[in-house]
Amino acid sequence: MTAAVRPLRISNDILGNPDQIRHRVADEGYVFFKGLQSADRLRSLRHDIMSVLMAGGWLQPDTPVDDGIANVDAQCTEGDPEYTDVYHQVQRLESFHTSGHWPEVMAIMEKVIGGPVLPQPQKICRLWFPRYTQHTTPTHQDFVHFQGSYDTYTCWAPVGDCPIELGGLAVLPGSHRPEQIKPHHFALGAGLLAIHDDDLEGEWYTTDYEIGDTLIFHSLLVHRALPNLTPDRMRVSLDNRYQSIDIPIAEHMLLPHLSGIAPLEWDEVYANWQSEEFQNYWQERDLNVVPKQEQWLEQIFEEVVALVRQGDEAGTHHLRRFVRREPDSDRGRIAREVLVETGLSKTARKNVLADQK
Ligand SMILES: O=C(O)CCC(=O)C(=O)O
Ligand SMILES: [Fe+2]
């Protein structure tokens, strides 16, 4: 495969034609629309999110909050306990959850899906620090994370302009066919699962996203994020999932995002909301809920252990974080033993022990 990057195909010309939209998604695995979502509402949401980040110490004090100028000393990412300390405050925002139900979003998802739509309860916001490129979301298919049914679609939108250097999403058109899950392996970055380049062919497509632009893609489409190469800007984006109300949904998609890393209940999420309209909205439906498959998590744990034994840095970073998060679980204990047993320097060993306190 080549490293060249081509521009996403813009589908605004077929916005009024659901058959053509579905045809294009079936063919290319994605559709991309310019200015689909209200820029005003997104700006207001950006203000709410950035205000949480400022209060949490992730933005430079005395800079305009809406600019999202990062305090790089606060760098952290999904999987780090410090990340959820602030991220879960974003999860409590009514405006954030409501954005997943905006009329223009529901209307386009109904066209893509061709019938009544369930916005999955788990809504996701991504908060990506600059100059932290080793934690960029690696190449993957969403199905390994969200599971349930293949016919689930991700709707990704930046909350603010997102030029290429800020690190938006890139897709590999047509890679959702044939209908199969490709091998995934451990990598740092959101989700921790990566498809290796050798298992792929085709060219990457992306764009300089502007506020309101919206990318929708199938759960088997291969995609990745580009690194946030700006000196100081946070990248903030929404990625929410939608499916027909009639097909299976995996049980973990009924829970707040990252509530497995640090506990967060829906009641806590709703504590300061004005409206009940989007609270527990899925409970009145007779959903077909299926268990979460643990196979990928188990696989990467074994891979990480093997990598750490070979002295791999990314694996060591992950295992140390894992021990901090779960010192007392079975895997946490194994992780600690592996870190101590491998050729860690004295300082690193001290850090592992300090992390456990
Ligand atoms: O925003 C990111 O870095 C990851 C997004 C993603 O992979 C997704 O929306 O499925
Ligand atoms: Fe993804």
Which helices and strands, and how do they pair?
Layout (H helix, E strand, L loop, with lengths): L4 E3 L10 H11 L1 E4 L5 H17 L25 H11 L2 H6 L3 H11 L3 E3 L4 E5 L14 H4 L6 E6 L10 E3 L13 E2 L6 E2 L9 E3 L7 E5 L4 E3 L9 E10 L4 E2 L15 H4 L19 E2 L4 H15 L3 H13 L4 H12 L4 H10 L2
Parallel strand pairs: 1-9, 13-14
Antiparallel strand pairs: 2-10, 3-12, 4-12, 5-10, 5-12, 6-11, 7-8
Helix pairs in contact: 2-3, 8-9, 8-10, 9-10
This protein binds 2-oxoglutaric acid (AKG) and fe (ii) ion.
Describe the structure.
The protein has eleven helices and 14 strands. It has helices at about 20-30, 40-55, 80-90, 95-100, 105-115, 145, 265-270, 295-310, 315-325, 330-340, 345-355, and strands at about 5, 30-35, 115-120, 125-130, 155-160, 170, 185, 195, 205, 215-220, 225, 235-245, 250, 290. Strands 2, 3, 4, 5, 10 and 12 form a six-stranded antiparallel sheet that branches. It has a two-stranded parallel ribbon with strand order 1-9. It has a two-stranded antiparallel sheet with strand order 6-11. Helix 2 (about 40-55) crosses helix 3 (about 80-90) and helix 8 (about 295-310) packs across helix 9. The chain is globular, with a radius of gyration of 20 Å. The N and C termini lie far apart (about 45 Å). The relative contact order is 0.16. Bound molecules: 2-oxoglutaric acid and fe (ii) ion (FE2). Fe (ii) ion (FE2) binds near residues 140, 142 and 223. The site of 2-oxoglutaric acid (AKG) has 11 residues, from strand 5, strand 11 and strand 12.
